[in-house]
Write a structure and sequence with these properties.
homodimer, 199 residues, mainly alpha, Arc Repressor Mutant, subunit A, Tetracycline Repressor, domain 2, 2 domains, 9 helices, DNA-binding
Chain lengths: 199, 199
DNA sequence: CACTTAACGCAAGTAGCCTTGCGTTAAGGT
DNA sequence: ACCTTAACGCAAGGCTACTTGCGTTAAGTG
């Protein structure tokens, strides 16, 4: 099991390589947003980046890996996590922001791309951590609510966010049905109080 | 707006045509379950059905349409809808059955196929009605609960099922994270009583 | 049974995706 | 400034999905 001690293989992170990388990743995000996942091709990305096709194939190999890398590198900023002091307001606002994002071409494309590449175990795990890191940020909403006494101690943060976000993601993924304006609020209400209502 | 009166184009639903159709659709479901969506190809389906590739291309045109047609024709039976007299038990059992189905290769493949072909407006609408018809059957669980007084009148049946099923669908679609054994029950509990619990 | 033609099989051809070999450019060390 | 070589561009080739033209089979009709 030789790790990497046998061959030093000095990399060259500076100058041209980094420039090419940035250009390709930026172009990938643009093509993804404009053309969608189905028409997303290496050729289009390479042309827009002003780079030869071969370079993209050698560095990334497949469409799926390129999309994943572009997402990991490009979208460091995520959905804003509100903090108004009220759980219901926070959850509704976050759900609304997520719904708006998923309504954009880029948002749709990202969700589709993740669904596409979930066959490969390695890529699926990478996407999982990607989503996980995003949801952990929003977990603060639930945790703050527990501290304020709005939610009981021991509340499952992951389950709460999954219930809130999954309906939106599912609609974006496999439906053509649009997300109604009041859906985020109704989701927040039901997640908090259940179908039976309060009391 | 000529409907279909100009060209009668007498179809031939009997005999060979129907035989070929059934063979291809059955083969499509098999290939879909065994190879997955990514490796799903017209050639493999045609070979397994004992039919020439050209025939499949001429009748269905694209992979997406073939998968959709195979699903619509092949899986008339859906997830069993329990009726135990208790909402919580019914919802948990249905969620569990759905989770089990999504864990099978065929279930995963179906979900992925729907996500793939949701770019085409026509196909997306067809898939939407497909899911819709499945969820309407399960809607009986909520409606019966309302009649029994377990749930308040005016309960949103669609929202209830969406909250119950979406987390399972989302995990199957874009994660590698498995569905924990107790997840269906926890989903049913939270959907009914909310994060704040009962009382 | 004879006739029309929808539906199928066969084979050749096209196009897009991806790989490979080789020469060239430029980054990083001496 | 010089050398080594990682990284890129170019061009040719292979592979797979898909299309098209044409002859053949068999379903439906009188």
């Amino acid at each position: 099991m030789t790790e990497e001690d046998a061959e030093p293989i000095r990399r060259r992170p500076g100058g041209r390589a980094a420039r090419v990388r940035q250009a390709v990743l930026a172009a990938a995000l643009e093509v993804l947003a404009e053309e969608g996942v189905a028409r997303f091709g290496i050729a289009a990305v390479a042309a827009r980046a002003g780079v030869n096709e071969t370079t993209v194939y050698r560095r990334w190999g497949t469409r799926e890996k390129l999309v994943l890398d572009a997402m990991l590198a490009g979208s460091t900023e995520g959905i804003p996590v509100p903090d108004t002091g009220d759980v219901r307001t926070d959850l509704a606002a976050f759900a609304r922001a997520l719904a708006d994002y998923l309504a954009t071409p880029a948002g749709r494309a990202v969700a589709r791309a993740a669904a596409l590449s979930s066959d490969d175990p390695g890529l699926a795990e990478a996407w999982e951590t990607f989503w996980q890191s995003r949801l952990e940020l929003a977990g603060a909403i639930v945790e703050r609510a527990v501290e304020r006494g709005e939610l009981p101690a021991g509340t499952d943060t992951g389950l709460a966010l999954e219930l809130l976000c999954s309906p939106l993601q599912t609609r974006a993924l496999l439906g053509h049905r649009p997300i109604e304006p009041d859906l985020p609020e109704r989701l927040a209400d039901t997640v908090l109080d259940g179908l039976r209502g309060r009391g």
